[in-house]
């Protein structure tokens, strides 16, 4: 059986876009969990099919998606909590002088 991304998942994302605040999210967390489950099932199926041809490092949908709680939209501090070493080096070596 093929797993599809359900209309209700897209409906949740549209509602989230219109109601981008923590209070709304908490009140509708059940919709998020249903959408997350649907997307995880779809990604797991996709990874299974892709692994028939390639050996992927990502073993599961859970490993391939960011946690919604890492989203900085609901944080007063919008900066990322961690940066990749290459980004840190690029930021450190960046100069504002343009020639």
SSE topology:
Blueprint lengths: L6 H12 L3 H6 L1 H22 L10 H4 L20 H9 L6
Helix pairs in contact: 1-3
Mean pLDDT over the full residue set? 76
Q: What is the string of SSEs from the N terminus onward?
A: HHHHH
Helix tally?
Answer: 5
How many whole angstroms does the radius of gyration measure?
18 Å
| Helix coverage percent | 40-55%
Low-confidence stretches: 93-99
Structure summary, number of beta strands: 0
Shape: flat
The biggest beta sheet is recorded as: none
State the end-to-end CA separation. Answer: 59 Å
Number of domains: 1
Q: Kindly name the structural category.
A: mainly alpha
Content of β-strand: under 5%
What do you see in this structure?
The protein is an all-alpha fold. The protein has one domain (1-70). The chain has helices at residues 7-18, 22-27, 29-50, 61-64, 85-93. α1 (7-18) crosses α3. The N and C termini lie far apart (59 Å). Residues 93-99 have low confidence and may be disordered.
Précis, in short:
By secondary structure, the chain is mainly α. It is built from 5 helices and no strands.
Which features characterize this protein?
99 residues, mainly alpha
């Amino acid at each position: 059986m093929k797993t599809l991304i359900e209309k209700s998942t897209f409906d949740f994302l549209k509602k989230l876009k219109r109601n981008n605040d923590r209070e709304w999210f908490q009140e509708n967390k059940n919709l998020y969990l249903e959408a997350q489950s649907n997307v995880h099932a779809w990604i797991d199926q996709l990874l299974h099919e892709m692994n028939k041809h390639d050996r992927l490092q990502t073993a599961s949908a859970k490993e391939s998606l960011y946690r919604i709680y890492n989203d900085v939209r609901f944080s007063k501090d919008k900066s990322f909590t961690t940066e990749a070493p290459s980004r840190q080096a690029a930021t450190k070596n960046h100069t504002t002088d343009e020639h």
